[in-house]
Q: What sequence folds into this?
């Protein structure tokens, strides 16, 4: 086609231009464009999309997005892919879970679907993608509208000015390649799923609407602080109503922003009493709603205080992973996850190592679990690369903007197991500052490493954190469990420590070893010893052992692992419990009863 097309000038360029992607890497789709979706109707764009993997990025080189629909017999030039026909896949899904041929596929893939539209005066259309791993480029009717980086947070694109009356074509190019400059970078201990794996929606809005809304308990505990961002109008009134609190209040919009401190005495949210309030906010023709709990989470010395009372976090870590669905989340799967956490005696979950589906925090609000949420600043990120920092900060701000009304979320974690270098320190210090600017009502943490040289909990980042997460595997990677006793004695942190990871692999079923490494018995032993030591460290105010379920990961290939990390207390079938599950549950239930 290019050889003979009128856009011939593109022909050679497509073959010889290795900067072909530059025009399509504006990274313009960020946290600033996120839309508050609570209580809004939306047209679901889920379902079958035309799909094509594109290992060589031929689509960007040849500009497949600028092709016009035509029947094969009417095409006058050779073509390499026709986005308007051919193979389809379901959205949301990870392509690795759909066909054997795509199991280890990493690279670009194209999604195309028709979008029929009949314009109505004064209305605006906003596309929202729940999550697409990793770089997602958006094209409408051949026009590039921007791209989004980050595989675990939502993003929005305004389509209003580019939608035509009748049939439109929406094309997304999603690339999940593992690179040095991404967040996470190219080496992780979880499976690199790809694709559009959370809901896709089209919102039809009035010309002026509520772009964002945040609520929290006032620092005095006797008021509610609300702030809203209005898009499309500078002035007017937002009507906020919280019927159960007898609150129905007009808040003036000034230069597109509205904020107020409203006296109120809400019942406080906690895991034992997960009280939520239904609320609505109206601006002109636009109406949104939410269910919000009010609580405070602070720290004092080495104590974590929930509503002013010391709390001990009985937790477990979880990945967003499933044997058949990959990273696609379902309501049933989430409820099963929380049910297992309840059986364990948990009041806390660490959602690792990236933002999970937003339904997780909504359910935690309802069911009464506290959450640690994290962005995938994992291992050896390119800490000296400003573009990598911009990507990481944007993922953080998207997470905060998406979940800041969730009472269950008590901790924002800015990373996991990073080397204690100067570049890392300034990178993560800046992230901690950015998190506090965006939300000063939660604790900032990171999963840090033990200082193995000085055998103590010590990390230069700690003074910029509220909670020091510690990942330690004594009895497993560090074979000598007694070292943990010494470390416990050597360390004198001045703030709360949460053991964000500990544990051991335990294979079960056919071919599993009876004893020794990778045996269930060995895993149980490690849990017993860990609990014995950690329970006596007074600055340890919680733990979230690694991990609730075995999970898929390419880098685990020994005869007991077979592509899975086997540190789950439950097997990857999400049913079969291992012996260590009982050991931890016994400890947690005893703690919950105040016996220890
Ligand atoms: C690390 C890391 C996890 C990993 C775990 C393990 O601590 O944070 O992502 O899966 O160890 O080795 O099992």
A:
């Amino acid at each position: 086609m290019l050889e003979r097309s009128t856009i011939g000038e593109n022909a050679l360029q497509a073959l010889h231009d290795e900067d072909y992607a530059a025009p399509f890497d504006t990274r313009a789709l960020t946290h600033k464009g996120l839309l508050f979706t609570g209580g809004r109707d939306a047209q679901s764009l889920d379902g079958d999309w035309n799909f094509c993997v594109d290992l060589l990025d031929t689509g960007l080189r040849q500009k497949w997005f600028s092709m016009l629909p035509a029947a094969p017999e009417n095409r006058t030039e050779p073509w390499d892919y026709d986005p308007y026909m051919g193979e389809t896949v379901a959205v949301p899904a990870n392509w690795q879970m759909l066909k054997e041929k795509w199991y280890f596929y990493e690279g670009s893939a194209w999604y195309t679907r028709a979008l029929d539209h009949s314009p109505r005066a004064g209305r605006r259309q906003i596309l929202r993608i729940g999550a697409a791993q990793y770089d997602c480029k958006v094209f409408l009717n051949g026009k590039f509208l921007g791209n989004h980086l980050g595989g675990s947070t939502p993003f929005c694109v305004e389509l209003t000015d580019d939608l035509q009356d009748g049939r439109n074509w929406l094309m997304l190019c999603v690339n999940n390649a593992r690179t040095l400059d991404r967040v996470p970078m190219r080496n992780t201990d979880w499976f690199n799923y790809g694709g559009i794996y959370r809901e896709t929606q089209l919102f039809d809005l009035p010309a002026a609407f509520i772009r964002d809304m945040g609520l929290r308990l006032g620092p005095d505990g006797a008021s509610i602080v609300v702030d809203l961002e209005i898009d499309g109008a500078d002035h007017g009134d937002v009507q906020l109503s919280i019927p159960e609190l007898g609150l129905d209040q007009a808040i003036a919009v000034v230069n597109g922003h509205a904020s107020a401190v409203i006296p109120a005495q809400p019942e406080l949210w906690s895991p034992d009493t997960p009280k939520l309030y239904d609320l609505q906010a109206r601006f002109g023709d636009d109406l949104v709603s939410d269910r919000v709990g009010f609580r405070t989470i602070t720290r004092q010395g080495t104590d974590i205080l929930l509503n002013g009372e010391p709390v001990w976090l009985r937790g477990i870590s979880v990945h967003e992973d499933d044997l058949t669905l990959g990273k696609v989340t379902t309501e049933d799967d989430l409820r099963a996850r929380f049910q297992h956490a309840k059986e364990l005696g948990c009041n806390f979950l660490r959602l690792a190592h990236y933002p999970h589906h937003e339904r997780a925090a909504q359910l935690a609000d309802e069911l009464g679990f506290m959450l640690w949420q994290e962005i995938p600043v994992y291992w050896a990120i390119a800490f000296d690369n400003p573009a990598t920092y911009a990507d990481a900060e944007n993922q953080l701000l998207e997470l905060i903007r998406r979940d800041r009304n969730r009472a269950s979320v008590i901790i924002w974690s800015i990373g996991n197991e990073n080397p204690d270098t100067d570049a890392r320190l300034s990178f993560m210090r800046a992230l901690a500052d950015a998190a506090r600017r965006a939300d000063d009502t939660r604790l900032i943490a990171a999963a840090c490493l033990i200082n193995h040289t000085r055998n103590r909990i010590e990390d230069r980042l700690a003074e910029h954190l509220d909670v020091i997460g510690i990942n330690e595997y004594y009895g497993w990677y560090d074979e000598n469990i007694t070292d943990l006793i010494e470390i416990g004695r050597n360390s004198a942190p001045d703030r709360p420590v949460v053991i964000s990871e500990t544990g051991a692999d335990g294979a079960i079923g056919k071919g599993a070893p009876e004893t020794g490494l990778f045996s269930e018995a060995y895993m149980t032993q490690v849990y017993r010893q860990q609990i014995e030591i950690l329970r006596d460290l007074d600055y340890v105010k919680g733990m979230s052992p690694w991990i609730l379920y075995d999970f898929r990961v390419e880098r685990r290939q020994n005869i007991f692992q077979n592509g899975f990390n086997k540190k789950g207390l439950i097997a990857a079938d999400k049913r079969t419990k291992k012996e260590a599950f009982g050991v931890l549950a016994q400890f947690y239930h005893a703690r919950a009863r105040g016996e220890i």
Summary: The pocket of alpha-D-glucopyranuronic acid is lined by residues 189, 353, 416-417, 471, 501, 546, 565, 567 (CB under 6 Å). The longest strand covers residues 108-117. The mean pLDDT is 96.
